[in-house]
């Protein structure tokens, strides 16, 4: 397998750094090839701008999406974006590794997605989910958090983990066609001792050993929806984003009592 | 009211630019004071680093959260962070205005949250939700998207809007103590004509006219949860993050059929 790790932690001496090194060792042992984009170390720029297109007039009104699409086809994306696209295209498995900041990705990783997953490459007009640009590849979130597992549960204070991860797991990864693997979660990292950290590293190693054949999570397919993007009558809603079909939701989006 | 608009669009001639100007006019008419952080125009840096703390040794291992907490108390945060904290502290209403990128905030806004909502100011250890640092203030997302409304519904292809917005609305805003107002959503912006755009601007103006007295959305309180962060037996789960209590969820987080 070709494995691409997008890594977003500023401190190599962190537990994230230890997880990264452990994953490098595991994939080396398995005979897989690994490339890493260490976003902080690269000084990766997460802010989209007109400078992302080498053939654009700076005075023009910036329509970033339209420019992305045009420049991808014309081969005029900025070099740092092209380099990342090449790595995504190369890989069989992409791991997004990051500490959870505000129940989501750190800005440097969010901006990597914003700039690199360009239309024409990662998806197209209507070419979403099983018709997305990255079909046939696997992807996984590997994240550390301060929260304890019971806090990120349906009856926990911060709500179900999978609701928190929905915008990335469904909205980015499944949307572009990846087979999305269950996230690897290291909980309560600031509060555990070295023995517990060693066990988390072992668990990550074990998980990666079987990852090439692991069964992906189940997200809905584009073909589960009709021409008006509504779920077909014979399809059962089966994700945390769709489970509310049939549940009364008022105009503000609140569930009614 | 003191209104603070955090604005994240790179092009003033965009529809987001028009919404911003309309909101300035509406608040001026209402006699409210408005401050705007125009993140792209400011060249706001969304990437946390050791340079965010003026009294730290660059050679030290970076524990960003611990440094944020310490530097907030010591008054040694970088000036750009201090300036934003001062605006958040000043406001009665904070609007996060942005185009939806990948079902979430653009990186420049995510990084604004990552760097500005420091522990000690926005929240503390266990000082979350109604005990958060920003209690008494209101907050609202105002966002534009290419998606049509029926795509962001419980039975729509991308899942319920409120699941997509959960990490920001619950995980950032409610978590810090804000009263969270229903989001203002401008749908299908690339596909609508000028007349429809004018109606969206009017709708935004109307919405802002009543915003000081609008009833907030309902999120769970910290006191709805017990000492182990589990929902109390007499509390009914009532948000999209908690609705799954009692629904079988397997170890990978998938809903079972």
Question: Quick gist of this model?
Answer:
Chain A has 257 residues and is α/β, with parallel strands linked by helices. Chain A is built from 7 helices and 6 strands.
Keywords:
257 residues; Rossmann fold; 32% helix; 7 helices; 6 strands; six-stranded parallel β-sheet; homodimer; alpha/beta
Describe this entry's structure for a reader.
The structure is a homodimer of 257-residue chains. Chain A contains seven helices and six strands. By secondary structure, chain A is an alpha/beta fold. The first copy, chain A, has two domains: 218 residues, Rossmann fold; 34 residues, no CATH class. In chain A, helix 6 links the parallel strand 4 and strand 5. In chain A, helix 1 runs parallel beside helix 7. Chain A is globular and about 55 Å long. Chains A and B meet through helix 5 and helix 6 of A and helix 5 and helix 6 of B.
The number of strands of chain A is 6
**CATH superfamily of the largest domain in chain A, called what?**
Flavodoxin domain
CATH topology of the largest domain in chain A: Rossmann fold
Count up the helices of chain A.
Answer: 7
Order of helices and strands of chain A: EHEHHHEHEHEEH
The helicity of chain A comes to 25-40%
Which spans of chain A have pLDDT < 50 for at least 5 consecutive residues?
A: none
What gyration radius of chain A follows from the Cα positions, in whole Å? 19 Å
Specify the oligomeric state: homodimer
List the SSEs and their pairings.
The structure is a homodimer of 257-residue chains.
Chain A: E1 2-7, H1 15-30, E2 33-38, H2 39-42, H3 64-74, H4 79-90, E3 93-99, H5 107-116, E4 138-144, H6 161-174, E5 179-180, E6 184-186, H7 194-209
Parallel strand pairs in A: 1-2, 1-3, 3-4, 4-5, 4-6
Helix pairs in contact in A: 1-7
């Amino acid at each position: 397998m070709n494995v691409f790790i997008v890594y977003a932690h500023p401190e190599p001496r962190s537990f994230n750094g230890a997880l990264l090194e452990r994953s490098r060792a595991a994939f080396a042992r398995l005979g897989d090839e690994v490339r890493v984009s260490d976003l902080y170390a690269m000084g990766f720029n997460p802010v989209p701008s007109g400078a992302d297109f080498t053939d654009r007039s700076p005075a023009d009104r910036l329509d970033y999406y339209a420019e992305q699409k045009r420049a991808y086809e014309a081969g005029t994306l900025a070099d740092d974006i092209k380099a990342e696209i090449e790595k995504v295209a190369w890989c069989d498995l992409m791991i997004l590794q990051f500490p959870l900041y505000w129940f989501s990705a750190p800005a440097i990783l969010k901006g990597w997605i914003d700039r690199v997953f360009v239309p024409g490459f990662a998806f197209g007009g209507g070419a979403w989910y099983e018709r997305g640009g990255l079909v046939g590849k696997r992807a996984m979130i590997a994240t550390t958090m301060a929260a304890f597992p019971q806090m990120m549960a349906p009856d926990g204070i911060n709500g179900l983990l999978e609701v928190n991860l929905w915008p990335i797991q469904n909205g980015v990864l499944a949307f572009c066609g990846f087979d999305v693997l269950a996230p690897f979660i290291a909980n309560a990292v600031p509060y555990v001792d070295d023995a517990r950290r060693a066990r988390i590293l072992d668990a990550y190693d074990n998980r990666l050993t079987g990852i090439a054949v692991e069964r992906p999570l189940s997200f809905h397919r584009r073909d589960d929806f009709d021409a008006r993007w509504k779920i077909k009558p014979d399809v059962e809603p089966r994700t945390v984003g769709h489970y509310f079909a049939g549940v009364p939701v008022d105009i503000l989006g609140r569930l009614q009592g």
